[in-house]
Request: fold
Amino acid sequence: DSKGEFSAIKTMYERLLEEATKYQRLKEAVQKIEEIEEEIREKERNVEAFYYRVVEDYANHREKIDKLNLSFRDITRKCTATSEGSYLLIELGDDRHHPINIKVDIPKSFSHGRNQLEILLYVLCIFKELIENNRPVPFFLIHDGVFHGIDTKTKIMTLNFINDLLNHQAQYIVTFNEDE
Reply:
């Protein structure tokens, strides 16, 4: 009888060890989940604080934002011969994970190179702002294929604008396809 009881006790003890091991693994996993959840809460607090700083900065720099829009329209006029209907709109976003929305539109809304031209004019606007405010950044700009699909007259006007803008103060590197 005692051998059978001893065997039963041994089997129960082995199950107890297995259960204790499972319990320890689960306890460690729960602890790790709690640590991750705390990290998530901390990151959410950081996002929230960042969002409020963005909102505050947006309000404090509204005049500069308006100036950028005027500068964008001026650049558009110089590069496309018209600025009617063009705009650079910087506004607060709808949610905390996307606090700023930037929208750009140009009058040549149906041209083949419209998106390329919008990107080019936006970048030139920002680059012009950097140059005019003597920001401590390298003064060079590199574009690869940005002129693809843009009509020849607009390319020429844009390159002339860039030449006047840089006035030997910065370097502009651009690639063209052989047929361009």
